[in-house]
Amino acid sequence: MPHASPVLSIMINAARKAGRALARDFGEVENLQVSKKGPSDFVTAADLRAEKILFEELSKARPGYGFLMEERGAVEGSDKTHRFIVDPLDGTTNFMHGLPHFAISIALEREGELAAGVIYDVAKDELFHAERGAGAFLKDRRLRVAARTDLGGALIATGMPFRGKSGQERFLKELERVMAATAGVRRFGSAALDLAYVAAGRFDAFWERDLAAWDIAAGAVIVREAGGFAREVDGGDFMKTGSIIAGNERMIALLGKTLATV
Q: How many degrees, rounded to 5, is the angle at CA 169 between CA 215 and CA 256?
C-alpha cells in the first residue's frame, strides 16, 4: 500500500476491523431468510455492531475528533476542526438479501473540507482510499477516472428513491433521458461503491439525489483524487442536499445537461 498518513492508516485499520465483524454477520444472513420475521432485526444489529467498532477504534486513536454517523448521528468532539463521517453499512438492503455488494465508508472532514476517504468493500476485500493532494488508490494501485468524453458510449450508475420517498416521478423522467442518451445505466444499491467505481473507471459517471452525507463524503474525496469531479446536481452543496453527480469534467457536464432537461 502507498504511504498513508497516520490518520488515514487509522481509518483503514478501523474499516478492516469492522469489516471482519460484518463478514461474520453476512455469513449468517442466508440462514435467516427462512425465518418468519426475516433478517431485518439481525441486519440492524450487525449495522450497530460495525458502527460501535468504528466509533471505538477512531475515538481511541483520535479522542478529540467529532463524528457524524448514520446510527448515532452527530457527536461533538473537543477538536472542532476535525470530524469523521461514517456509514458502517452502505448497501443494507443488499446485505439483508445475501447480495455481496455493500461497504463501510469513512471520511475525514478537516476545517469543513473533505480531506480523506476510505471505502471498504467487505465481500470482495477491495479497499479504496484517498487523501487530498495524495491521490486515490485501490490497495496499492493508483486510480484514475475513465477518460470517455462521449455520453453515447458511457456506462452510468445511479440510485432510485426507496418506496415512500419523494422524488420518484422526477427520477423516472431523469432515468428515461439518461437511458436514451447512454450505453447503459446500472443501479447496484450502494452509493459509496458507485462513487468508488467511478474513481476506478468502472463507471463513467454517477448521479443520485437526496442521499445522506455519510453515503457520499468518502466517495467524493476518492473521485476527486482520482482526477474526477464531484458536485451537487443542481449547483448547491452536496454535503447539505445529498444530491451528487460525479465523473470526469466532460462527462458530468454532459450528464448534468441531460438531467437539467427534465
A: 60
Q: Is the pTM higher than 0.90?
A: yes
List, in order of start, the domains of the chain with CATH numbers: 6-142 (3.30.540.10), 151-260 (3.40.190.80)
Is residue 8 within 8 A of residue 129, CB to CB? The reply is yes
H-run or E-run covering 247:
strand 244-247
Q: What are the strands of the beta sheet with 73-75, ordered from one edge?
A: 73-75, 65-69, 79-90, 103-110, 113-121, 126-131, 135-138, 141-142
Task: State pLDDT tens for residues 121-175.
Answer: 999 999 999 999 999 999 889 999 999 999 999 999 999 987 767 788 899 999 9
Q: Is 180 helix (H, G, I), strand (E, B) or coil?
A: helix
**Burial of 33 (C-beta count, 10 Å sphere; 0-12/13-18/19+):** exposed
